[in-house]
Amino acid sequence: MARISSRSGALAVAAVMAAAVFGMASAATYNVGEPGGSWDLQTNYANWVSSKRFHPGDQIVFKYSPQAHDVLEVNEAGYDSCSTSNPIATHNSGNDAIALTSPGTRYFICGFPTHCTNGMKLKIDVLPGATSPAPAGAPSANSPPPPSTPASAATKGAAATGFGLAVMFAAGLMA
Length: 175
Fold this sequence. Notes:
- The two termini are 14 Å apart.
- Helices cover 30% and strands 18% of the residues.
- By secondary structure, the protein is of the alpha+beta class.
- Helix 1 packs antiparallel against helix 4.
- Helix 2 (45-50) links the parallel strand 1 (29-31) and strand 2.
- It has a four-stranded antiparallel sheet.
- It is globular and about 40 Å long.
């Protein structure tokens, strides 16, 4: 690998790499209902969402059997009344990843008869800010570290490792 002779060139490369990797580290993927559930009739979504902090750049993933459920994004009135008549979006793949692109409240319900009225509905508050403290299934910032990393935390952990590698690479360029 050729060395960059200019110190400013090395710093520019390091800055670009760190910015790219830091951008990846700020997003989290939340599998709805995990670790104990999924998009189903057994999961208590109010409890699940209460330990999460969603930010722009995060995504939520609904995993379910498409023969038994779907996901409708609705407005607040549709959420409150479990109305399926005017969805903002309809998802039915059984593995639906939904990007949370801006601050605000998002509402999701199952459109199958009686599922929403039996609790299959989710309200997500996307908070302004750059990072999410913990991905799906991970403890909050005040909790002690877990004995092992949950599978759903792998995305954020890999990005953080990548950031460390980028810093080490940049330091080598500047040497």
